[in-house]
Automatic annotation (TrEMBL):
It catalyses: 5-amino-1-(5-phospho-beta-D-ribosyl)imidazole + S-adenosyl-L-methionine = 4-amino-2-methyl-5-(phosphooxymethyl)pyrimidine + CO + 5'-deoxyadenosine + formate + L-methionine + 3 H(+). Zn(2+) binds at residues 269, 333. The keyword Iron applies. It is an enzyme of class 4 (lyase). It comes from Anaerotruncus colihominis DSM 17241. Its cofactor is [4Fe-4S] cluster. Keywords: 4Fe-4S, Iron, Iron-sulfur, Lyase, Metal-binding, S-adenosyl-L-methionine, Thiamine biosynthesis, Zinc. Transmembrane segments: none annotated. Substrate binds at residues 69, 98, 127, 163, 185-187, 226-229, 265, 292. This is Phosphomethylpyrimidine synthase. Belongs to the ThiC family.
Length: 434
């Protein structure tokens, strides 16, 4: 092919079929896209073995994308239900699916996804190593962790999260910091525990060069995990989080030297007034690498409604530099999400992403809103349903409460401001009580 990764191709000014698809979707020129990918400010996760992929670009200069976390667990082991969630998520417009399966025959599920699912696919090999080897955590060897990473690459996974910023030095700093909520990253807590049990260096840090060679071979995009992301707003922006981010910035530069694409993961729980600064710090330390955030959740008090706390934070984060939002469902902190939870999480995240694109002034972002404004002005209900981010729910709500007059709704009736302004400006009578 003449290139190893999408970044390598861009640096040679080779236009790949994935780049052509991304440029068309984003509505930007190829020269600009080539520059963004070559400089690491945009990534196109596209494993060479993921044959059914519909590629998307991720970067702050592009449309904000969303990721949906799914997968089996010991308590909820139903692959058919998880596959239903996957296909629903794809149909609802999720650009990426992350398989976080932690129980069962995970490789069968993963290979089914890379064979059938067109979304960008991500995994966390730390989880899978524990399932795959089925032995005590402390007995897994450094090389076995890396072998599972390679297995995921062979299976066609487009991006992988590795918690390589938590090395012996940052772990020591974390232990000194006395956090309120310790480590809430599942992968981070597992690798920290392994380091404590064995006394060894984090293998994803120690053998990072080996990881990069695997990424070059299959064109896997690295998602540098934030093991020290805050799990409550009291821990946001602390020394552990920032020190790890410094290390991730250094690892980003090392990956770019090998033409490996990189995203950097971020918070987490964080108060509203800290989000902009946190985004700007990441952009500085990681030289504009795409920032992938979980939320951020702007308050800790809303179990059952954390899709809302995350959407608030996600809209602000994406406005100020984040480019990839990991959805959060109403089930966050409580249980494995149901099919309906997944839908609510996706809708909330898509709203946040679109709101940020409008705020950033991305070309064409506000056109959707303009068309909705036109439909509302003319009281064209069918057109409003077509334009709604969730057409099914909009139609259902309208049908559940039928107005006396079809040009109104049951909230205002004939006092509807839109209806009456249309009438009066057309020289017609406003017949509210008739």
């Amino acid at each position: 092919m003449g290139y190893t990764t999408q970044m390598n191709a861009a640096r040679q000014k080779i236009v790949t079929k994935e780049m052509q698809a991304v440029a068309a979707w984003e509505g930007i020129g190829m020269d600009r896209l080539l520059k963004l990918v070559a400089n690491g400010q945009a990534v196109i996760p596209a494993n060479k073995n993921h044959k059914c992929l519909k590629p998307f670009g991720i970067g702050s200069a592009l449309k904000t994308k969303i990721n949906v976390n799914l997968g089996t667990s010991r308590d909820c082991m139903n692959m058919d239900v998880e596959l239903e969630k996957v296909m629903n998520a794809v149909n609802m417009g999720a650009e990426a699916i992350m398989d976080l399966s932690s129980f069962g025959d995970t490789r069968v599920f993963r290979r089914k996804l890379t064979a059938e699912c067109p979304a960008i696919l991500g995994t966390v090999p730390i989880y899978d190593a524990i399932v795959y080897y089925n032995k005590p955590l402390k007995d897994i060897t450094s090389r076995e962790w890396i072998d599972v990473f390679k297995m995921h690459a062979e299976d066609g996974v487009d991006f992988m999260t590795i918690h390589c910023g938590l090395n012996r030095s940052t772990a020591a700093r974390f232990k000194q910091s006395k956090r309120l909520l310790n480590l809430v990253s599942r992968g981070g807590s597992l690798i920290f525990s392994w380091m404590e049990l064995t006394g060894n260096e984090n293998p994803f840090f120690e053998f990072y060069d080996d990881i990069l060679e695997i990424c070059r071979q299959y064109d896997v995009t690295l998602s540098l995990g934030d093991a020290c992301r805050p799990g409550c707003i009291a821990d946001a922006g602390d020394v552990s989080q920032i020190e790890e981010l410094v290390v991730l910035g250094e690892l980003t530069a090392r990956a770019w030297e090998k033409d490996v694409q990189v995203m950097v993961e971020g918070p987490g729980h964080m108060a509203l007034n800290q989000i902009q600064a946190n985004m700007e710090i990441q952009q500085t330390l990681c030289k504009g690498a795409p920032f992938y955030v979980l939320g951020p959740l702007v308050t800790d008090i809303a179990p059952g409604y954390d899709h809302i706390t995350a959407a608030i934070g996600g809209a602000i984060a994406a406005t100020y530099g984040a480019s990839f939002l990991c959805y959060v469902t109403p089930a966050e902190h409580l249980r494995l999400p149901t099919v309906e939870d997944v839908k609510e999480g996706i809708i909330a995240s898509k709203i946040a992403a679109h709101a940020a694109d409008v705020a950033k002034g991305l070309p064409g972002a506000a056109d959707w809103d303009y068309r909705m404004g036109q439909a509302r002005r003319t009281l064209d209900w069918e057109r409003q349903f077509e334009l709604a981010i969730d057409p099914e729910k909009a139609r259902r709500y309208r049908a559940q409460s039928q107005p006396e007059h079809s040009d109104t709704c049951t909230m205002c009736g004939k006092m509807c401001s839109v209806r009456n302004m249309n009438k009066i400006l057309n020289g017609e009578n406003v017949d509210i009580m008739e």
